[in-house]
Design a protein that fits this description.
By secondary structure, the protein is an alpha+beta fold. It folds into 2 domains: 68 residues, no CATH class; 88 residues, Sandwich (Immunoglobulin-like). Helices cover 23% and strands 32% of the residues. The chain contains 3 helices and 7 strands, in the order H-H-H-E-E-E-E-E-E-E. The strands form 2 sheets. It has a 4-stranded antiparallel beta sheet, with no helix packed on it. The chain has a 3-stranded antiparallel beta sheet with strand order 1-2-5, with no helix packed on it. Strand 6 and strand 7 form a beta hairpin. The longest helix has 17 residues. It is globular, with a radius of gyration of 21 Å.
Length: 163
């Protein structure tokens, strides 16, 4: 839930829109919406989630679809990095989906492993690389490059494997 969602919740409860961090968490989120709803007569009973009216839920879902549809393909940094046993690599595909290829190369540019090759539905996806080659062999410590290609988009990031 982001600032725009907070605005929809505050509008639903007939308040002025303001992006306020009511629970002092450092971000505007569900906790803030719960505080706002409680202030305007909705009892959340201390829950971290907010029961949402159907019409408000429809607005939030539509906003999320439009936001995801507008989002270009993205490739997020792997976590953890550096890593010892495995690392998670995530990427976002727009709502209409796309052919995606995610591959790992060594510092010489040789293909080490193909992690993803095929059609991906719209949304956020994650794949784990276990530090092995396509042959199933553990690769040595070092710097590797992970490349994502999809729909004319190409991005690369460094992966550091430590043993």
């Amino acid at each position: 839930m982001g600032v725009a969602d907070f605005g929809l919740v505050s509008q639903h409860y007939l308040t002025d829109y303001w992006p306020a961090d009511l629970d002092c968490s450092g971000v505007v989120g569900l906790g803030d919406a719960g505080i706002l709803a409680a202030h305007y007569g909705h009892d959340c009973s201390g829950a971290r989630t907010l029961p949402v009216a159907q019409e408000l839920l429809a607005q939030l879902v539509q906003k999320t679809r439009v936001q995801l549809d507008r989002e270009s393909l993205s490739f997020r940094p792997n976590v953890p990095n550096p890593f010892r046993l495995s690392t998670e690599i995530s990427y976002t595909v727009p709502l209409e989906g796309s052919e995606v290829r995610v591959r790992v190369f060594d510092s010489s540019g040789r293909l080490v492993r193909t992690l993803v090759r095929g059609w991906a539905e719209g949304g956020v996806h994650a794949i784990v690389w276990d530090g092995r080659s396509d042959d199933g062999l553990r690769v040595p410590s070092g710097t590797y490059f992970c490349r994502m290609e999809a729909g004319g988009f190409q991005s690369e990031q460094k992966l550091t494997l430590l043993k």
